Amino acid sequence: MTENTSAYHPLTVEEAIDVARSVTNVFYPTDDLICDEIGDGNLNLVFRVRLAHSESASHTPSLIVKQALPYAKVVGESWPLTLERARIESDALLFQGKLVPQLVPHVHYYDETMAMTVMEDLSDHVIMRKGLIEGNRYPLFADHISEFLAHTLFFSSDLGMNQQEKKLHVQRFINPELCKITEDLIFDDPYTNSPNNNIDEQLLADHAKLCSDHKLHLEVALLRQKFLTSAQALLHGDLHTGSIFITPQSTKVIDPEFAYYGPIGFDIGAIFANLLLNAAGHEHWSHEEQLREVHRNYLLSTIREIWNRFDEKFRSLWDEHGVDRISRTKGYQDLYMEQILQDTIGYTGSKMIRRIVGLAHVADVGSIPDQAAKLRAQRIALQLGTALVKSNRRIRSIEEMFTICEHAYKGVYTS
Amino acid sequence: MTENTSAYHPLTVEEAIDVARSVTNVFYPTDDLICDEIGDGNLNLVFRVRLAHSESASHTPSLIVKQALPYAKVVGESWPLTLERARIESDALLFQGKLVPQLVPHVHYYDETMAMTVMEDLSDHVIMRKGLIEGNRYPLFADHISEFLAHTLFFSSDLGMNQQEKKLHVQRFINPELCKITEDLIFDDPYTNSPNNNIDEQLLADHAKLCSDHKLHLEVALLRQKFLTSAQALLHGDLHTGSIFITPQSTKVIDPEFAYYGPIGFDIGAIFANLLLNAAGHEHWSHEEQLREVHRNYLLSTIREIWNRFDEKFRSLWDEHGVDRISRTKGYQDLYMEQILQDTIGYTGSKMIRRIVGLAHVADVGSIPDQAAKLRAQRIALQLGTALVKSNRRIRSIEEMFTICEHAYKGVYTS
């Protein structure tokens, strides 16, 4: 597990071109290539290498060279990170690529010393968060993402993978540093006066309420415990709408550097939280409640469809590919799915809260120019998040989530 | 993680003597040493090296040389096992030795190539199972074993160990092969017609009932799921009374080769199950119910004392050494302890059942010469085990366990 960091150095643009050129069957040796560093993440360099003289940026051969940096940019060089996460990301992409090749970027090559992965360029896609902020719809998304979730989670769990092989998988995906970021930013800081928090002046009173809500803290402690101990399946680990490249026809899940064995509901909750944050963000759209409601209903029905399809697909993989007789125990599947649903609700709520008062916000809400609309959006997210976290252990059906959602909107509008 | 097996070979008696002699400060270079292979386990060679000419076997310098075999003796050479488990055992002993040195054998030396650990000889102790079968009492045992459980489990969990360090610990103690034995022999075989089972003719009807009890199967599936996924603390993993050396003054926990990160209740349940099996085994003692009841009550009050002391010690370690502020969340400790209790009850029951109809029986019941008494003991164990498994998720207090116990005895005596 030790890293050979002696030859490691951050790539230059010229080196990225050389690396890309060495991948066979993409460029001709005589091609004139150019390269841009396009990373907007916090932990990596991302180079896009393509033909110098092409008319359309999106329809020529091109490649991505992604390299891990030994620190997190978001907090300067003072937050050091080992390069091991690049190995985990490339391993996770390869695992997912075997199960759902159509839903992840193709990996051409991984170099451990340089902590570098060469992969398919997806510049013809947009980041889903951006697309949703612009009000776009993705009618195939629920089908695609439920396919991604069902397959990657089922086949990495004890239900779909030989249990001894799975243990070696757990070992391979132990990811202390990236998990630490989640443990602090999602399950700790938002509920206390942490210097990591990033709280709008107008939300200080709301945050004070979060800090004194003991019922909420107990549920967060339990969700955190599960995050720390439940090695249920190989998670993506950071599955927000900024980790999804999308077009109306295609969905590609990227950036699994937070991958580790955790509770299944954590990945599903990440998706739901970010769709609900987008819905809240559309408070700025217009003063016509009707227009906002149409978009919100689109997102809520997407959530319903994701859950129902996930539930259906996961169960059908289970029935068809369950690796042992115990998994067929009467009543076991129903209890298992109910537990996933409850966890999903809890993680959905905790991820909404952290995006409003924690370190890293989302543009869906954070970039709202009108202060009154922004405050409304923030409060909807906090109230909904809090209600979901508090109710997680009692939930029996996805429909209860929508009732809670309705109450949160009403609460903010009538307060 | 690859093993250098090239130089590995099973030790001879002469080699064991040489190894023991190389340990400093135990023998004089001129000492005449003798060696016996005393292993009665299934997976290892155990050599005892001591002075050739000493009057008392138990008060002279001596050492144990324990070597893992690359197969399990219990099922012949056809069940191959890697030698990695010797590394895990020695690692676990060293970890436990730092926390509770008075409760584990001292490790002098570990040799990875030979899969061999040189450790303190405990021949002045007896195996606790044997002592209990003879009707002996160990008044300090509850205090000792609760100390062992509280310290080893607390300080290896996310409550008492830095969470990032703990993840590396999880990685170090991934133990697929030995866990597989538990998964099959405890959570699978006893509930089906497995060729691994070892069922007395007179119990075939009782076993058939186990095989068709769907409510029981569901609970076993959930307990198994937790065994597979819950990385709560570093368990001993095989903590029955055959893994404990004892005298009235001293308790030493040995043989942690099954160590891995699992649910805390699994270790506590192993102790409880074996005390309850011993109680059931005393059905052969005499026709005087009173005598049996005195021994049973001694064992039940030992269980009560173990739980209460464990609960008290674990909570006080938590209050004093909890590594983060989240662990101090109001109500969290109570819920956590209740969950441990429920798991303990469930694992107690499943371990009782497997010792009656599974592959490996216990002498407490298995060696009863009188067939009627043996059948009574077996039925008490099966009924009690079944009732405990079925009730595990509803239990709120250790006292409920004793009520269930009373019912099981009544049930067998009145049927």
UniProtKB/TrEMBL annotation, chains A, B:
Subunit details: Homodimer.
Q: Which UniProt keywords apply?
A: Amino-acid biosynthesis, ATP-binding, Kinase, Methionine biosynthesis, Nucleotide-binding, Transferase
Name the HAMAP family for this protein. Answer: Salvage_MtnK
Query: Could you confirm whether the keyword Transferase appears in this record?
Result: yes
Please state what class of enzyme this protein is: transferase
GO BP terms, alphabetized: L-methionine salvage from methylthioadenosine
GO MF terms, alphabetically ordered: ATP binding; S-methyl-5-thioribose kinase activity
Reported function: Catalyzes the phosphorylation of methylthioribose into methylthioribose-1-phosphate.
The record's annotation in Pfam families points to: APH (PF01636)
**EC number from the UniProt entry:** 2.7.1.100
**Which family does the record assign?**
Belongs to the methylthioribose kinase family.
Task: List the protein's name.
Answer: Methylthioribose kinase
The question of whether Kinase is a record keyword is answered with: yes
Q: In which pathway does it act?
A: Amino-acid biosynthesis; L-methionine biosynthesis via salvage pathway; S-methyl-5-thio-alpha-D-ribose 1-phosphate from S-methyl-5'-thioadenosine (hydrolase route): step 2/2
Q: Which residues bind substrate?
A: 238, 354
Q: Which residues bind ATP?
A: 44, 66, 120-122, 255-257
Q: What is the lineage of its organism?
A: Bacteria, Bacillati, Bacillota, Bacilli, Bacillales
Q: Can you give the residue ranges of the Aminoglycoside phosphotransferase domain? A: 37-279
* Catalytic activity, reaction form: 5-(methylsulfanyl)-D-ribose + ATP = 5-(methylsulfanyl)-alpha-D-ribose 1-phosphate + ADP + H(+)
